Structures are given as structure tokens and as C-alpha cells.
């Protein structure tokens, strides 16, 4: 497909090549696109519409919710619940799964999402995003939380919207990764980044260095070797970036390569926490996108998409990006 194609056209074209497709999937993706446009509009208007600051609430993980976390979550529900394409929703900002209200028909897909990722960046006007993933409903019964506990390899589609200097939507349905830019004048996402691929090699890494004393040994070894630069075993200098918005971080990696790490550390394991990022709303969808773009995504020793989820809000360590670097880090874990 060529530059200038609208996302609506693009999704319809992709669906045409799926045998037996009924149009439900296309319609659901279009509803998600609408939700992202609504969130983008709120994020862009920021303080003008009183959207900055915290809400008086916490999510299930004890994090204070931002007003925009709550608002974005509502927008996602509002745009997707009515159409008859979704069986149930699960979000980082809702304790339990969201049942489709009785007045609406129930559909055959499950939708998981992080309505606003990187939300600590809202008040300082730095990029934030939305992450989503689509799974199939297993049977005809009303979906329950357990139905969401599917390995990442089962995902039908995943994507993110990035609310940066321009708003972009990046999507995979398992046939590569494509990026679209929102043309605010016509209110449409236009294909601007066809077939996004991650360079296999890189000299750029991203990690929150304030946690370094808690890192597991293989990660410490990797970062130490990067920092040693030309004089170290890697024999080249590395650059470092940390935005604290996973969406922006993954987008940079899709654009020019790199490695992103939120690894396991002793502070989290002491609290019985499996990692920082959430498997169903962040790690799985991003892993699907990264792998479809030719990159790798692991917990350390294991491929993230092969994990069998144990609970809705489960957290996992995440190391993703340029394939050769991710393989190297995985090697350090097996050697450990
Ligand atoms: O504040 P830290 O430790 O740097 O963590 C930043 C990470 O946390 C996140 O913001 C978590 O996502 P939420 O903002 O959706 O909770 C990631 O986007 C980011 O990579
Ligand atoms: Mg997040
Ligand atoms: Mg969030």
C-alpha cells in the first residue's frame, strides 16, 4: 500500500485478504482509532480543558491515577462497547474486566489496553501514548477474566498511539508493522511509515539508571559493557535515552533501533512484584509489534510472547529492541 492511504482503507484492504473475515475486526479497529483520536484531542488541549493533574483515585496497583488516565479509559470504553464486536474489555486502570452492558450485543473479540502510558509525563508536557491488544473470545459463553489469560502469541492485532509532536498510530495484525500520522485538518490517520523494521544492531540503550544497584547481574553486565564504550569489550561508544514513556521509547526503537529495558530487580522481587510493566496491557502488545518489525522481546531468559499469563494485572520484566542486542542479553541470562 502506498503513502497517503488512510488507515480506514488500509485496515479494510488487510481484512480482504483474511479468509472468512466478516468485517467485525475492521469495525473494531476503526472504533479503537476513534478512541485514540479522542484521547489525542484531550492530550493536545491539556491545561486548556483542565485535563492535567491527578484524579482523587488509585488503580489496583496503588498508583495515583491522573485525570487523563481516567478520562482516556472512559473514552476507550465509550468508543468500543456499543458495536457488538467486543465480548469484554480489560484495562490497566480497571480492577476487574469490563462486561459489555446488557443493552449492547456481545462480540467475539477481547480488548486489553493501557489507556494512557507514561502518564507521569502529562504534567510536564512530554509524549504519552495508548497501547492496545486484541484477542479472540474462546467460546460462546460470557467472557470471564480467565479468558484474557492467553499467551501473547495468540494476539490477533496490537498497536499503540503516540501523542508526540505529531500523533501517530502504529499497528500490526501479524503481517508486519505500519505507521500512520494523524492529519489534524481532516481527522484521519494517513499511512506515512509503511513496513517499519528495527535495525538488528544498535549503539543506543534505554534504562532507568536510578535502579542500577538493584539490577540483576546479566543486565548490570550488559550496561557496564555499553558504558565502557570504545575501550570496553564492545569496542564502540553507546548513547543512552530514557523518556519514561514506553510508547515513545518503542517508537524510537522502531525508527532508529535501540534496546529498551525494564528488567527484574531486587527491589521489586522483595515486594513480590514480577516486574514493572504489565504483561497484558504493555509487554505483550509491544512484543508483538517489535517482533513483527524484526526485533526481539524477552523477560531476560524467556520470550515474552510465550509466557502463560497467570493473572490480569501480572507484571513482567521487559527487554526489547534490536535483535542482536536482545540475543546478547538473553545469552548473558543463560550464562548467569
Ligand atoms: O518511572 P520509571 O521507573 O522511569 O518508569 C517508566 C515506565 O513506566 C511507565 O510509565 C508505565 O506505564 P504507565 O504510565 O501506564 O503506568 C512506562 O511507560 C515507562 O517505561
Ligand atoms: Mg503504561
Ligand atoms: Mg497507563
Automatic annotation (TrEMBL):
Pathway: Carbohydrate biosynthesis; Calvin cycle. Its cofactor is Mg(2+). Residues 198-333 form the Fructose-1-6-bisphosphatase class 1 C-terminal domain. It comes from the Bacteria. Substrate binds at residues 117-120, 208, 276. Gene3D superfamilies: 3.40.190.80, Fructose-1,6-Bisphosphatase, subunit A, domain 1 (3.30.540.10). GO terms for biological process: fructose 1,6-bisphosphate metabolic process; fructose 6-phosphate metabolic process; fructose metabolic process; gluconeogenesis; sucrose biosynthetic process. Binds 2 magnesium ions per subunit. Its EC number is 3.1.3.11. InterPro entries: FBPase_C_dom, FBPase_class-1, FBPase_N, FBPtase, Fructose_bisphosphatase_AS. PROSITE patterns: FBPASE (PS00124). It is found in: Cytoplasm. Mg(2+) 1 binds at residues 92, 114, 116. GO terms for cellular component: cytosol. Residues 6-194 form the Fructose-1-6-bisphosphatase class I N-terminal domain. Mg(2+) 2 binds at residues 114, 117, 282. One of its GO terms (molecular function) is fructose 1,6-bisphosphate 1-phosphatase activity. The keyword Hydrolase applies. Transmembrane segments: none annotated. It catalyses: beta-D-fructose 1,6-bisphosphate + H2O = beta-D-fructose 6-phosphate + phosphate. Belongs to the FBPase class 1 family. Homotetramer. PANTHER family: FRUCTOSE-1,6-BISPHOSPHATASE-RELATED (PTHR11556), SEDOHEPTULOSE-1,7-BISPHOSPHATASE, CHLOROPLASTIC (PTHR11556:SF35). NCBIfam families: PRK09293.1-1, PRK09293.1-3, PRK09293.1-4. This is Fructose-1,6-bisphosphatase class 1. It comes from Halochromatium glycolicum. The gene is fbp.
Amino acid at each position: 500500500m502506498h503513502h497517503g492511504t488512510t488507515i480506514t482503507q488500509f485496515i479494510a484492504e488487510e481484512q480482504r485478504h483474511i479468509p472468512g473475515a466478516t468485517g467485525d475486526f475492521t469495525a473494531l479497529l476503526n472504533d479503537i482509532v476513534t478512541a485514540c483520536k479522542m484521547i489525542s484531542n484531550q492530550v493536545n488541549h491539556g491545561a486548556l480543558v483542565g485535563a492535567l493533574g491527578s484524579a482523587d483515585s488509585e488503580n489496583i496497583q496503588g498508583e495515583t491515577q491522573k485525570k487523563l488516565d481516567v478520562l482516556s479509559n472512559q473514552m476507550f470504553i465509550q468508543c468500543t462497547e456499543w458495536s457488538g464486536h467486543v465480548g469484554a474489555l480489560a484495562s490497566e486502570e480497571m480492577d476487574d474486566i469490563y462486561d459489555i452492558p446488557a443493552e449492547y450485543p456481545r462480540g467475539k473479540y477481547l480488548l486489553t489496553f493501557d489507556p494512557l502510558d507514561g502518564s507521569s509525563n502529562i504534567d510536564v508536557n512530554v509524549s504519552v501514548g495508548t497501547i492496545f491488544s486484541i484477542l479472540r473470545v474462546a467460546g460462546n459463553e460470557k467472557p470471564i477474566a480467565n479468558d484474557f489469560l492467553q499467551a501473547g502469541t495468540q494476539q490477533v492485532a496490537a498497536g499503540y498511539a503516540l501523542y508526540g509532536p505529531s500523533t501517530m498510530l502504529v499497528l500490526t495484525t501479524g503481517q508486519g508493522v505500519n505507521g500512520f500520522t494523524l492529519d489534524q485538518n481532516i481527522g484521519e490517520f494517513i499511512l506515512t511509515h509503511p513496513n517499519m523494521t528495527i535495525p538488528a544492531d544498535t549503539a543506543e540503550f534505554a534504562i532507568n539508571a536510578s535502579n542500577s544497584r538493584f539490577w540483576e547481574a546479566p543486565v548490570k553486565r550488559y550496561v557496564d559493557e555499553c558504558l565502557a564504550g570504545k575501550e570496553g569489550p564492545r569496542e564502540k561508544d553507546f548513547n543512552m535515552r530514557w523518556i519514561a514513556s514506553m510508547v515513545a521509547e518503542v517508537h524510537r526503537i522502531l525508527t532508529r533501533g535501540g534496546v529498551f529495558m525494564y528488567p527484574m530487580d531486587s527491589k521489586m522481587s522483595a515486594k513480590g512484584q514480577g516486574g514493572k510493566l504489565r504483561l497484558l496491557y504493555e509487554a505483550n502488545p509491544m512484543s508483538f509489534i517489535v517482533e513483527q518489525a524484526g526485533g526481539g522481546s524477552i523477560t531476560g531468559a524467556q520470550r515474552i510472547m510465550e509466557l502463560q499469563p497467570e493473572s490480569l494485572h501480572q507484571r513482567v520484566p521487559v527487554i526489547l529492541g534490536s535483535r542482536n542486542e536482545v540475543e546478547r542479553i538473553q545469552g548473558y541470562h543463560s550464562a548467569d
